Amino acid sequence: MRVLVTGGAGYLGSHTLLELMALNYEVCVLDNYSNATPEVLSRVRSLSNGTVTDYTGDVRDDAMLDRVMAEFRPDAVIHFAGLKAVGESAEKPLYYYDVNVGGTLAVVRAMERAGCNRIIFSSSATVYGEPTYLPYDEAHPTTPKSVYGQSKLMAERILTDWTVANGAASAVILRYFNPVGAHISGQIGEDPSDIPNNLMPYIAQVAVGKRDVLTIFGDDYDTPDGTGLRDYIHVVDLARAHVAALGYAVRHTGARPFNIGTGQSYSVRDIVAAFGRACGAEIPVRQAPRRVGDIAAMQADAGRAMRELNWKATHTLDDMTVSTWKWQSGNPDGYTR
Length: 337
Ligand code: NAD
Ligand code: UFG
Hints:
13 strands; alpha/beta; 11 helices; binds uridine-5'-diphosphate-4-deoxy-4-fluoro-alpha-D-galactose; 337 residues
């Protein structure tokens, strides 16, 4: 099977390439390197000892999409390319809608022109918004609190309407919870270009000495230790969910959302303690007020993905922190873009 991976040089895309190549999928990447470096694909090639066709270009570029479709002739597309910073999305809403909504629309239109009917889409648990109950199942109301979340929900809508009109089309919508961790080799991992927004890469940079102290945002939530609870999922488990989703897309038409999480949640303090075990040193922390826009707790009901995709997360919290530390300590400056 031939799979076009948009955003394949990014954090989630690169790990997914390795899982696909291990199973002999033929892969092709379209990436504009706005948040990645070509070095990622060099490492993927050497780790897999395989071929990655790649195009440098934007998913909003129709001519480029037509060229990739004509030359690579994918059987399916995994659409990772997009923007993901919640704070930035409030400052640059038009940019976020352009890339995340316009980019998805352009990809699907190009697929339709080429007769490619299967897409796996990177959505986010943030489409649910403030929980009315937990764990979230896929029927939970969707009321995203950020422009970023809205852009993901709009893209989901576009894909859903497309499959209603095109009876041969299949859209598997993966709502990721909190992806963390790195490949077991320590050769690829998450490489934020700026100050990390997210907890795990921030802790990793404190542990390696690039930052002084982790700021814990809020200790007065209604949670067991007062800090935020999240459903962290190992990036390799998440990558494998895409392989399972491709199989599902071959067997089914229509659009269907799936939660991609473990069903378990950990607090900020749990993560700090686990990282301390992984790196063998205590992580310095300071307490600060809640971060604006944060919710107290998020947790997936991952039952649908288990039943229908035949997929289940298998990595533990220690797997997440140990692999992150292996990546960060071996590559203190990331890919050095
Ligand atoms: P990432 O930034 O590491 O990867 C995205 C890739 O897309 C990068 O390589 C970037 O260069 C590329 N890209 C961005 N805009 C592009 C464009 N217009 N044309 C072509 N390429 C473009 O991010 P990631 O963490 O790997 O996330 C991948 C997807 O998953 C995103 O759509 C993101 O919104 C979604 N997601 C991520 C998380 C997370 O916590 N990492 C959570 C939920 C959903
Ligand atoms: N946190 C800190 N200090 C930090 C960073 C985070 O205490 O420096 C806390 C947060 O307050 C939260 C938890 O750690 O309680 C996790 O925060 P992250 O920023 O790592 O993750 P979020 O759940 O806030 O956000 C993630 C993605 C978003 C996505 C959202 C919902 O980064 O893109 O999940 O899916 F929208």
